[in-house]
Amino acid sequence: MNKRVTGFLGFINKLEDWFLILTLAVMVILAIAQIFFRNIFGEGVVWIDPLLRVLVLWVAIAGAVVATRNDNHIRIDFFTRYVSKKYIKYLQRSVYAFCIFICGLIAYHAVRFVQMDYEYNTIAFANVPAWLTELVIPIGFFMIALRYLLLFISPPEQENR
Amino acid sequence: MLGGILLVALIIMGVPLFVIIATSALLGFSSIDVDLSVIAIEIYRIVDTPILLAIPLFTLAGYVLGESKASERLVLLTDALLGWMPGGLAIVSLFACAFFTALTGASGATIIALGAILYPAMKQAGYEERFNLGLITSSGSLGLLFPPSIALILYGVIVQQMGIGVPVAIDDLFLAGLLPGLLMLLMLTVYSIYKSHQRPEIRRTPFSWPKLFKALRSSMWEIPMPFILIGGIYSGFFAISEAAAVAVMYVLIVEVVILREVAFNKLPEIMRDSMVLVGGVLVILGVSLASTNYLIDTEVPNRLFEFIRSHIDSKLTFLMLLNIFLLLLGMILDVFSALVIIVPLLLPIAIGYDIHPIHLGIIFLANMQIGYFTPPVGMNLFIASYRFHKPVTELYHATIPFMFILMAAVLVITYWPELTMYLVNNKN
Lengths: 161, 428
Hints:
The structure holds 2 protein chains of 2 kinds. Chain A has helices at residues 3-40, 48-69, 85-119, 130-134, 136-153, and strands at residues 123-125, 128-129. Chain A is mainly α. The longest helix of chain A has 38 residues, at 3-40.
């Protein structure tokens, strides 16, 4: 790969990492703050709880995106252990191709879902529009599909065999 | 039918589970002409489950704790408390591992963190190599039934999602896991004492008050933690997800600010690594909300129940088959994916056989715990093999006695529901 591409990928890696880390940091701070509010002022801040639940979704999707980078998703690798070195690349490529297709499909339908809530002006909580909180799903699955495309182009060496 | 064959083929090919589950949901919904944007709608339902907040928070707390030297202090403390007993160091290992696994989630961290201290210590004290390896490998999943087990939380979430009418509160699940978990610890303790009797040359450390006092002092910051969490939850002072937030805050203050064992600038990396695990599990949960919804819409669990009912009529036979099935499942699947995939199918059937959902959860996890070190693919076997530089086959042999002991424990847990339900039914 040429320098510009690796540089760009490094940038994307950092971007994904920091989105994940900052979302989690905000989640931790708000969750702790809410306990103080509840116990000192007698009641919590209204918008923190729904926001926290949205942040769980964001952390989940962002974590899944980062997990895809090194092909770290949970799978049953019991059978593929016995595939010989000669054929493993073909198998990996077909698996990745399938993942690209399915994740792309999810991303596409998620875009439609977000679009619908955008058009109907659905509100998630307080004044926050629902489409904004949902946006992480299409973007996330698009990134996952993109990661699988990179894995498809250069499948990693399989360990533990 | 064709869809089923496709899914099996995908599993064998090693396609990531979240993709397979998403595929099954997409196939299912398109076969009954439901708009496929339903998959995104279902994933978004993660937002409707407040308790899920506890999972990233407890995982983060566990990862930070795993990076600190808390594991060493824990061994010092249990050694000062239990080291004088026959088989003392083995018992220390069991208790320390169970405790540490409960705090950090059964992600293999126990073997890495505690194994490094316990394995050489037991070797030096004169324990047989095979016993030593087997003990540490099988203890790596021993805390799965103790609070704040992330697996138990996930089970509770899945059951709540299904809306079966029987309330299953997470704190009840925590209570339910205590006695079965202690039973497992007790049986392994008895075995360790028996084993150490066979080797009189094993050294014991005499009990001493100054030593205990010193150990207590060195762990003075960690000791209050379980009491704060468990006390807080059961006094109703805070909810489970609040307890998780308290755990994160407490661990950060102690390990980063007071003891300074975890450098502040290492936190982003720890946060990222812990969330890779969480993301992997929650994305499976998200897509399985969709597939479960399809299964329930088309009454698959009910039909499955009718089918099984027509072949098995006694509860005892069903439970026996359930144990065999779960043990096999535990061999090829990790506990989180197994929960998400199997519980939605299994729960309605188990309820049909008059098994309480809480009891089912404990049976499920008790079996899965054995799966962590069952050949050929138990995750902890590979972690231990990597950690102690031993071939996996040697670990297969080493863990066999422990496997049989825990299987016996599982049988007791399965056929004696009162053990599980006692604390839940008598909590006031």
